[in-house]
Amino acid sequence: MQPSRRRLLLAGALLPASELATACLKTTAPVSLGTLAAPARPPSVLATDESWWAEVARQFDITDEVNHLENGFWGAMGRSTLQAYQRHTAEVNRGNAWYGREAYPAAYRAAHADAARLLGVAEDELVFTRGATEALLALIGGYNRLRPGDQVLHADTDYDSMIDAMQWLRSRRAVQVEGIALPPVPTHDQVMQAYADAFARLPRLKLVLLTQVSHRHGLVIPVAEISALARARGIDVIVDAAHGFGQLAYAVPDLQADFVGINLHKWIGAPVGVGAVYVRRGRVADIDPYMAVKDDGRIFSRVHTGTANFAAYLALPDAIALHERIGIANKRARLLALRNRWVAAARDMPHIELLASQDDAQASALASFRLRGKAGKADNQALQQRLLKQFGIFTTARDGLASGSCVRVTPSLFTGMQQMDRLVAALEQLQRG
Ligand SMILES: Cc1ncc(COP(=O)(O)O)c(C=O)c1O
User: Fold this and answer.
1) Closest CA relative to residue 412, chosen from 20, 70, 5
2) Which ligand 1 atom sits nearest the alpha carbon of residue 265?
3) CB under 6 Å to ligand 1: residues?
4) What spacing in Å lies between the alpha carbon of 261 and ligand 1's midpoint?
5) Do the strands 176-180 and 151-155 form a parallel or antiparallel pair, or are they unpaired?
6) Structure confidence by residue, pLDDT tens digits, 207-252
7) What domains can you pick out in the chain, each with its CATH number?
8) Which one, out of 45, 81, 173, 325, has a CA that is 20 to 30 A from the CA of 118?
């Protein structure tokens, strides 16, 4: 008796992996982004077209219980990504290990290839992680060219857990750990000078951590220029691009750095749990294999290898599709327009101290402020709470800058200009105590 097609299919005998994926994920339907299409206008003009950005905002399902100006934590998924994520979660669960073992590897490779294309890197230079922390800890902890007595460098604008990881190198690699503080609102030349001075001052400097967009106040530093300076002195650079990729228009090799950690769940809008490590071809041996993982010489052995969230990776191409439909140049221009709306108004308020560059090249969606003379941690936590309780505006307090604490404001793609105006009105009222 002939086995039924269904039985053969169950045994995985009939179908190649690509078709097996379709068989497993029976209910998968193409994700629709509707008619969303960016009008052919210069990004700087489109940036203030509220009706088009309202159409973009309709791609997101965000509660209006508060005025959301804290979008630096992670980036909400668009509806199409959320639907895909939910569908993949249900389907993976339904397909169970059959799907996981037979079809998932090909689907994972397709998502990985899409990410490599987006980042402008080769597939063997990129491996997924669960976020930027995992990616950067693998790079900082794994970087194996340090010798006892070497020097490593971080700055006050770096992310707290990466500073901790750099500090940890003192005991892990017996190196000298150096920190610099950038001026509160540095110019491009001041940033370059700060790194050039440190490079000149530290003769045994071997490794520098560079945070492309600081999570504390949104400062964008010229990573490629600093990397070139470092390279000329034989210093390696690890770039924290957690807030850079998806906000700024570039391909990863443009950073001129051999080691980069990113996430795709902030500014690409992937489900939480999607990040990546980039290691330039030829440099994988300079990063240790991940704890107890056999060294196969490939980037994939440099990170956590356990079971991850299948559906999060599977939904990444949907997030990329929405990102590309809006267009990186349009995203960048819109986020700057939203940021500059409140920053320009606050610049005229004597009671506000802005931590926000006047130079758009150094600006991002994130920018911070504090009440003049109030740089304490508790002051800024109280200010963040006041904005929430009195004005319904949700922000976050940040500390760790050498100049003191602040409140960070971060609009997103679904933020309307009127939300920024409500913030401006609130900032004016703060003067009254
Ligand atoms: C500058 C910076 N680096 C790294 C991270 C960590 O990213 P993840 O949450 O993906 O681990 C963040 C998160 O806010 C960040 O702002």
Assistant:
1) 70
2) 10
3) 131-133, 159, 211, 215, 240, 242-243, 263, 275
4) 9
5) parallel
6) 999 999 999 999 999 999 999 999 999 999 999 999 999 999 999 9
7) 107-321 (3.40.640.10), 328-430 (3.90.1150.10)
8) 45
